[in-house]
Amino acid sequence: MTNYQKAIIIGGGIAGKLAARVLSDLFQEVIILERDLKTEEPIPRKGAPQGAHLHALLLAGQSGLEELFPGITEKFHSSGAVKINSTRDLAWFHHGVWKLRFDGGYTTTLQTRPNLEWLVEQYIYRIPNVTVMYGQTVQNYHFDEKQNRVLGVVVQDGSGSLQTLGADLFVDASGASSFSQSWLNKRGVHIPQEKVKIGLSYITRMFELNENCDRDWAIKLLYPNPPHEKIGGTISKVEGNRHIVTIIGYHNEIDEKSVLKNDQGFIDIAKKLPKLDIYQEIKDAKPLSKTTIYRVPHITWRRFDKVKNLPEGLLLIGDAICRIDPVFGQGMSISVLEVLALQKLLRSTNQSRQLPVSFQKQAAKIIAPIWNMVITEDYRYPETIGKKPLGLPFLQWYAKKIFLLSTKDKEIYNTFIKVMNLLKPMTILMHPKLIGKVMMHRDGSSVSSRKNS
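That's the Glutamate synthase sequence above. Prediction below.
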């Protein structure tokens, strides 16, 4: 794509860095505009308030990241990130049952988001035609009405100075509070969107656990059994021999004031989890951080693929398109898949006018099945408000059967893992053999009371 000279990316988070990586192959110059100041160590950024909470790369995201940055997985491990067997070292209590634990041959890396983002950033710094400009706040676009094209971006630095930067392509990776979305709205551009109210709260704290030779897991997930349970939690080992604990509550179920009142508040909320496992681990543990809270009142999918007259030269990616329910850990992996789709388009599309529209359609194809899978679970709560997917009662019934069978049937659980980790489409769960097992299954107390193995 020799007609592309310069690309500007708004936002230096995960999606922005990944976009810079693929754009650097075909653009002579790539500039990342980051609102936060540069840090000298892996710490949570002000511009990413969710950064202090538990994050995970699913298997598809992990594979894609390695493809984009060869050797980065080993860099994670050498930095202290924890390499685990995805099915053996995960203890997962889900819809009232413990998932089967076995060696499925998958590996997962457990680490904090700041560690992951920091190491990705080190790779970016080594790309000679990529520049990161810190402390930059986007104020406006320079727009040509006749061409319907974005020609430049007006930015303000920390001193208040303004400058306009021109480019051939502008990529908005600025997250859920996307500047482009508000700019388009002010211009009267209609952006269809799907919005679902979930009233989610995240509370997180880091701990140093007591030694326990009987601890046979690296990450333990206690998912609420909807609709009567709304609080769940995860405890995960991360770099530095620490454990990060994140407790989630749907539909404002968590009393945030009591949690923040004192150190005991976090311990007390752990008592409300479906099992006392996490409470038992942290009640005598040493806290290593303060309690942080992150709220997701609703999830939103902005359908830029349906926008008529989308300005040329403007492309949106990551959470700027879709902020999905973070409980399922799919956000970063979706960004990886989107960037790989962008890379493919860049190599095959010869005209800049085609790229943004083509990419938004590809992004929608990536998001659609994941969105439907996630909201199928979110709608198990009657308080969830939004547009429901077609066939919701059947989808929920079938999914619940898969969940329950995952406690004892290795084939079904292994198939579910591939879907959950975005390695395979949901349609593989409808294989005739699996349908037969689902139809034969009968709910019973022997399954729901099964102990962790």
